[in-house]
Amino acid sequence: MAELPVILLPVGHDDDALDACLAALDAGTPAGTRIWLADDARIGPRGAEIVQRWLARTALQADYTCRQRSIGEVAHLDDVLRACGDADVIVLAPDAIPAPGWANALAACFARDASIATATPWCNAGEAAAWPRIGEINPVPDDIARLARACRALPPLYPELPAAIGHAVLLRGNARRKAGGLDASSYRSWYAALIDLSLRMAGLGWRNALCETAFVARGGEGGPADGDMDALAVRWPAWHSRLATFLMGDPLYATRLALQQGFDALDDAPAQQQLFDADAIGSEADPVAADMPHDTPAPPDRADNTAPPSATPAAQDPTQ
To answer: What angle do CA 42, 47, 52 make, to 5 degrees?
Structure first.
């Protein structure tokens, strides 16, 4: 199996959500997948204990870095993404609950369509990519493994989204670089900075797509910081009406209905839990994705509690 893109998890201050996220990653991601836990000096003592305990037992190839002081969500993410160069990176929200097979499905999406710059999976709280009802914060699914099976049965058509969504997104590295990366000077939230990046990449001819064969749950939606929506409206005057038109027109209705029907059809089917063992998921990866090379650099060899993951000397934390 070819290496999957590195997963970037910007850890937050919600310890319980982080614990659940890490457990779901272990359960639904192939062993050996690289993951970088990047801390913008936000984690507390209990969260640090959760991370260190998880690092000691996980089968994933995991590393943790922590800044001495916070530089802000967008600046932090842009710094870490720049450290990854032109590599494709999955950015996962720290309160997300990825379903089995999620990373393989995202990688297969990029392998099948080179025009896709961002691939976003379904989410119960995913705004334009929400399931089962668009634009709503739906409850976290009770049987996420069954839902993953239903997603995998959908035809991979990768329809257009207005923009990528922050619960989980695979970013194409060269598209991100050509678009200039995240704009930390204009936006304070990942929510708004990701929309802006998506629209800039779309302006260069790339696509922002739904990966309908993957699902990542979340307890709630991300949101903008104060002033972010005003900044978006100034730079992208048509954005709000475009999103509203998408939500009201619901072009994904047939796809969401097909997923619901597939999920319901599995109601009485055997659980077949062995299909969702992390190693089994990796061995059943999409054959197109299996042949796809990934040049993603590995994150730091060990946890670094003092130095941020910097791409250039200019990105160094001035407190160090």
So the answer is: 115
For residue 90, how many other CB atoms are within 10 A of its CB? 26
User: Tens of pLDDT along 9-40?
Assistant: 999 889 999 999 999 999 999 999 999 999 99
Cα angle value 207/2/80 (rounded, 5°): 60
Q: What is the pLDDT of residue 169?
A: 98
Report the candidate in 302, 85, 90, 289 with the shortest Cα–Cα distance to residue 181: 85
- Is residue 92 a contact partner of residue 37, using CB atoms and an 8 Å limit? no
Tell me: pLDDT of 110 over 60: yes
Is residue 304 helix, strand or coil?
strand
3-state secondary structure of 126: coil
Dist CA 150 CA 260 (whole Å): 8
Query: Residue 146: what residue type?
Result: R
Question: What pTM, to 2 d.p., does this model score?
Answer: 0.85
Q: Which residue has the tokens 């037992």?
A: 57
Residues 122 and 190: beta-carbon distance below 8 Å: no
- CB-count exposure of residue 63 (10 Å: 0-12, 13-18, 19+): buried
Q: Determine how many CB atoms are found less than 10 A away from the CB of residue 164.
A: 27
Average pLDDT over residues 159-171: 98
C-beta atoms surrounding 284 within 10 Å: 16
CA-to-CA distance for 274 and 289, rounded, in angstroms? 22
3-state secondary structure of 190: helix
| Amino acid in position 61 | Q
Q: Is 211 helix (H, G, I), strand (E, B) or coil?
A: strand
Residue 273: pLDDT band (50, 70, 90) is: very low
Going by C-beta distance under 8 Å and a sequence separation of 6 or more, which residues neighbour residue 49? none
Phi and psi torsions of 83, nearest 5°: -65, -20
Alpha carbon distances (Å) from 121 to 48, 54, 87: 28, 25, 19
**Average pLDDT of the chain, as a whole number:** 87
